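1st attempt posting a full record on here, be nice pls
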Amino acid sequence: MTEKDPRLERLMNLTFAFLNADRLGKKYLTGKWIHSNVDGYQNLGETAFKKLFARDRRDLLLVGVPIETIAEFRTPDGVVQPAHRLAADDYALPEINFTPAEATVLGLAGDMGMNQELAAFARSGWTKIAAAGAHRELGGAEFTTVGDIASITAIDLDRILRACSKGLAISFSYQAAADSETQTRHMDPWGLVPLRNRLYLVGFDLDRDEPRSFRINRISDITQSGTATHPKPPAEDLQALVTNSLRRGHQLIDATVAIQPGRARELTEVGTLVARDDIPGYDTYELANVDQGWLVRSAAAHAPFALVLAPQTAREAVIGHLRAVAEAHKDACEEQATANTEEKS
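the predicted structure (as tokens):
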């Protein structure tokens, strides 16, 4: 899997901040606001921020993102300082409409000439941009490789995004688990939320009469079904809605895990690399808001190539799980040995 690129994440977050400035009620963004609110700058000192922000603006200009700067901008509290804005008229692309056949070809093109993981990575970029255009909240935004996107067709993705932006209701087939029956569900969609390498459709569930999120790889056959009657509340945080939904019935924890390079990819994909070789032969990752049961099972499956360092409760749970497996294996071997002895006699 492609490793995270802090520079690319920072530039994407900066671009999305400018794209959403109007919706935030800000014609211009000041350096102070960007320093405080855009991920990638918040931990920098004043001087380091100014140098990095100036370099990032130059980089964005080189790739065609027209950032304009005015030397004297008066803030609401009367302070005069430099400020910046995106020249949206020079940046926005005209609307492009594809026939179903063309959309299918474009969807398939993402899988041609590259392996499946890179195809999903390419599509995740499209999803990130399109979801932002569908009014996704940017609080705590991350640029994330969304593995689930490989499971949805280009046509279904287009229908979801169009419904979000145009205020349309949708219906779709939903299968909660591989062995469960498929249900037809109805929703007023609000947006797509990437979270820990998964992608969720969030909106108002018309069947349950409440906000709900559905993992994208469990839905199919999406159709538009009239005008939505439950628009997204302005203050609704879609990321928090998904996180709280997942938290119900699960114990979500922050964890630190040491992993040998090239191993336990389902853990590294949802973690952030924080150190290399602190433990000889292992890289150290921090995992935020992961289900403890999933972490214990995954770390045990990859032992000894993955070691849970913290929290202690999860570490002890992994050890207990491995001991239980070893004991069960020992009992099975003894039973097999007894059976073999009886057969010989």
